[in-house]
Amino acid sequence: MRPIPSIFPFNQLLGAITKMKKHYSFYDSTVVVVVSLIKLINSAGIQQDLSTFNIMINCYCQLGRADTEGFAVFGQFLKLGFHPNVVTFTTLLKGLFLQGKKIQALKLFQKMVEYQYPCDSVTYRVVINGLCKAKDSNAALTLLRLMENRNIEIDVQLYNMIIDGFCKEYNKTNEALKLLELMRQSGVKPNVITYNSLIYGLCISDQLNKAIKLFKDMISQGVMPDAHAYNTLIDAICKKGMLEHAQELFDTMVTKGTHPDIVTCNVLMDGYCLQGKMERAKRVFDSMVAKGHEPDVFSYNILINGYCKAKRLDDALQLLEDMNCNGLKPDSVTYNTLIDGLCMVGRLSTAQDLFKDMQGHGQNPDIVTYIALINGLFDNGCFSEAMELFYSMVKNGLKPNVLIYDIIIRYMCKSGKVNEAKELFYSLPNKGLQPNARIYTTLINGFCKNGRLNDAENLFAEMGQKGIIPNDHTFNFMVQAFLKANDSSKAVQFLTTMAERGILRHAETISNIVDMLAADDPNNENIDILRNYFLK
User: Fold this and answer.
1) Which residue ranges contain the repeat PPR (predicted)?
2) What structural domains and CATH numbers belong to the chain?
């Protein structure tokens, strides 16, 4: 009779399989196979040890089933007399955090501390990382202090996790900066990842000057910025419209020996496109190609969007052709941008051809595509075609949103079909949609333009009853309608109400109304009321 083999070589093989990179498309099925193999090994009479059970728990955790099968295996090996080790608990903690079960993970960790189960630096790292990913960086910081009290070594990676967590939470960048100082005081040297997180946090919280200062501080501390640091800062500078500064930083990047990547070029190109400087944007694009960087779909989309905004549709369409020639598949953003741009300049026929073309290339139109084309058809007076496309969209299984109904209601009002617009508006809740300030304003404007001021006032009152705050356009439409109806008293009364509610903030609007009233009747008593109440 053959001796039963040791479990050890099986553990080595199974453990290696579960450590394969998760980006492999077959990873989940491989993990399932590992679980099946362990069960097969068990049925063959090969005795499992703690490592085998830990591998099995890890498999269930990777499959997002830590809270069910993971703990079932945990209970099973406790019954068999095995004692969990630090790997067991750390694996379960990681699995719970992966599932988004922060509370359960913290309860398990507290039990570990309470019953003095072993915790190593990996355990703390898993919990801190889980808390930061769950946007609870304050709790992660508390745990870091606990580690300090227990004389557990804290390395730069742990600090980086919490700093990055704070930077990604709303209004917590100052806490991240304080932690940077604490880090330095503790003798832990910040690295490029530390600075990258902080620069990103400062940029997204609109603290560009601080981000630039930190960037300079980074260099003075002997930490060389990488492409990510430059990209983040160049992007933020471009968004502020400071293109010359962005170009200077780009040039510095090259001079200092940091190679711009495709993201750098995309960011700079987008900055030029936002300013309508298409020749400069195209120069960046061509330079990217000349230096061996293959433009991606995002690169083309940026340039196509810029050309569409500049109403240079032939240039935009040429880029689409270039994409196809270069074997790059346009995505829905490419088509949506082009269709919207074509509709804006009245090239409906080309837009409709492109709509068919995208489907022929396996790209299904989404809600944004339909909105662009439906709006374009309405803009060009093709009411029946627009509605036909709308019904086609619904038939194809796409659920209309409030924005698309806003477009339809606007054009119903424009063509005098105010009753139909009103009926459609009040049918929205039955369709699972709640009207917002924008669509209320659209219908109010429709009522005003069609001389139905009572309906407009009632709808405005309804907004207040439902807690929907009117925007500047809402009261501007109302005031203009009252003035057009020669009811300046009502206009002033309405403006006063708006001011009392804290909605009216633009003195320029009042100044324009004063000028209008004075032009019609210089002695109008409401002029003094407006001047004294709003413009003093």
Assistant:
1) 49-84, 85-119, 120-154, 155-190, 191-225, 226-260, 261-295, 296-330, 331-365, 366-400, 401-435, 436-470, 471-505
2) 1-116 (no CATH), 120-224 (1.25.40.10), 470-536 (no CATH)
